[in-house]
Amino acid sequence: MTSGFLTPVWIAIAGAMGTLLRYYAGLLTLSWSQRLPWGTILINMTGSFVIAFFGALTAAHARFPASNEIRLIVMVGICGGYTTFSSFSLQTVDLARDGALGRAFLNIAFSLILCLGATALGYVSADAINHQSVGVQHASNSVVGQDRQSR
To answer: I need a labelling partner for 19 at 20 to 30 A (CA). Which of 51, 76, 87, 94 fits?
Structure first.
């Protein structure tokens, strides 16, 4: 893939795809998201898994190394358009403003526990795949273009 002008265009297209995925996932979860925003929690949880799984699996020394452009398209574009931290924040504040403090704190707790758990599971899953091949080093790119050791 060519760097330069086309990379941000592809990221924008991927972001639009992520946004559409988020929209349809939200529609699919409406019926069971009335009292607590389970759709947003599910979207953030799956997005957390995908960004960690893809990031670890496509790192420079991973089993399926990918270019920074491809990593940006998936991790910034698709995952950025798909995940919904701003929605999580708004829904949490709305619950609190409506006097549902218990549900607001549950939303915070479930979101943190499930999304951090999904992120950890994404890394563990990718590491398991990365280590299936003999001689593959530990995948350590958690941030696009940056090794964990250099942070």
So the answer is: 94
Which residue pairs from 19-28 have beta carbons closer than 8 angstroms and sit at least 24 positions apart in sequence? 19/81, 19/82, 20/81, 21/78, 21/81, 21/82, 22/81, 22/82, 22/83, 22/84, 25/82
Contact between 36 and 107 (Cβ < 8 Å) = yes
Exposure string of 35-48, with b = 16+ CB inside 10 Å and e = fewer, is ebbbbbbbbbbbbb
Cβ pair 80, 86 in contact under 8 A: no
What is the pTM assigned to this prediction? Answer: 0.76
- Residue labelled with tokens 């995948």: 139
Rounded Cα distance, 116 and 21, in Å: 21
> Which contacts qualify for 19-27: CB closer than 8 Å, 24 or more apart?
19/81, 19/82, 20/81, 21/78, 21/81, 21/82, 22/81, 22/82, 22/83, 22/84, 25/82
- In one-letter notation, the amino acid at residue 110 is F
> 91-109 pLDDT, tens per residue?
999 999 999 999 999 999 9
State both tokens at 147.
């090794």
The tokens 């060519």 sit on which residue?
2
